[in-house]
Amino acid sequence: MKSNPLSAYAGTVLVTILWSSSFVLIKYGLSELPPFLFAAIRYTVAFLFLVVVFVALRKKGNPSESVVALIGGKRFLLGAGVFGYTLAQGLNFVGLFYMPAVMASFILNFTPIFVLLLGILLLNERA
User: Fold this and answer.
1) Which of 43, 26, 36, 47 is nearest to 91 (CA)?
2) Number of neighbouring beta carbons within 10 Å of residue 48
3) Which residue range(s) make up the domain with 30?
4) In a domain, 78, yes or no
5) Which of 4, 29, 103, 123 could cysteine-pair with 99, CB 3.0–4.6 Å?
């Protein structure tokens, strides 16, 4: 299957717009809903959308091999669901509830430094 550079650029622009508008849109939503409920609704809708896309791709005979491989790793999926989405994103929404979006984004951008330090301390990784 040939890739289309124009669709790659369009996808990149779309993802950038979605990610960059997330904090602002979440701040608006938090004025109406509590943080964990809002996060739960957001990610449930995203999950349902991805299930529809996955089923449609599977019917075409073109399932994503990486997704199929992940489904086999049930522990990985459970851990990613609990820590990566429920806990991390729920706490992100709580943080946005209590502080400005700019400050939450600034703190979130320190994630690679925290991962580096935890990798050194817990996994004994050295460059």
Assistant:
1) 36
2) 10
3) 5-98
4) yes
5) 103
Residues 42, 45: Cα–Cα separation, whole Å: 5
Q: How confident is the model at residue 66 (pLDDT cuts 50, 70, 90)?
A: low
Residue 47 lies in a domain: yes
Residue 75 and residue 13 in contact, taking contact as beta carbons nearer than 8 Å: no
CB burial string 96-117: b at 16+ within 10 A, e below: bbeeeeeebeeeeeeeeeeeee
Question: How many other CB atoms are there within 10 angstroms of residue 21's CB atom?
Answer: 10
List the structure tokens of 75: 């522990």
Using 50, 70 and 90 to split pLDDT, how confident is the model at 127? Answer: low
Looking at residue 97, the DSSP 8-state letter turns out to be: H
Q: How many CA atoms lie within 13 A of 10 on its CB side?
A: 5
pTM of the shown model: 0.59
Whether residue 24 is contained in a domain is answered as yes
Rounded to whole angstroms, how far apart are CA atoms 68 and 55? 12
Give the position of tokens 């489904």. Answer: 71
What is the count of structural domains for the chain?
1
> Is 61 inside a domain boundary?
yes
